[in-house]
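Worked example 2:
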Amino acid sequence: MRTPPPFAPPPGYARVKAVRNFDELVTTPFADGVNALCWPRTLPGDFREVVDRLPVGAGIVTLDESCLEDLPLSDAGKVAREILLADQRLLRARDLLPNLDAVHGSVRELPEGLFPTDVYSFHVDSATVAADTYLCTYAGATSEGLRDDEAQRRVDIPETRAELLRLYGGEDDADFVDYLHENYFAFHYAPREHARPFSFGLGNLWRIAIQYPGSPVPPCIHRAPLTLPGQPARLLLIS
């Protein structure tokens, strides 16, 4: 593996921290406001060849090891395949459940309301117990993050909250707050004017904080890029 270029967090943003290896990625606690850890990597191999050798699909196709092993690949493609398999083994050894997805096209979820509540909207992940999200894009458009000071919860925008309250048909009380959470409205964010999202980059393995009771840091605001017809498919690891 070639030496990765220096990793530069978003200027003036202390919530993102670089680590030197996988062990640091999984063992460094989220603390002092840091809610995103990045292991910067410049990966050898041809990941685009792996994607191009896959059967033509639609939407999101999850790849298992047997699918990868069956692909006829060049030497560079084989190097990429071994990295894909090795990354999954690293995560599984930590009792995580990684998925390797080929994203051929984005299917947007448009619930009743003013904004989508899918992964293509800036959002935070959530859970009822302590957990983290791991992400790596090997090919195609990369995930993006958004600084806390450049984001506003959509349900805190007065006009949006008023429309959601109208759709709910009740009072702005504890039950309404539960409704916002149960329908994922509370987890989505709007970029403020002049916001500048930052790229997660290709090959970098990220661990980001999610929202759960007792979390020591705020969750990391992020989104997946839309993959439109005619655009190259993405190859993404997520756990």
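The chain has a mean pLDDT of 90. The chain has one domain: 16-149+192-238.
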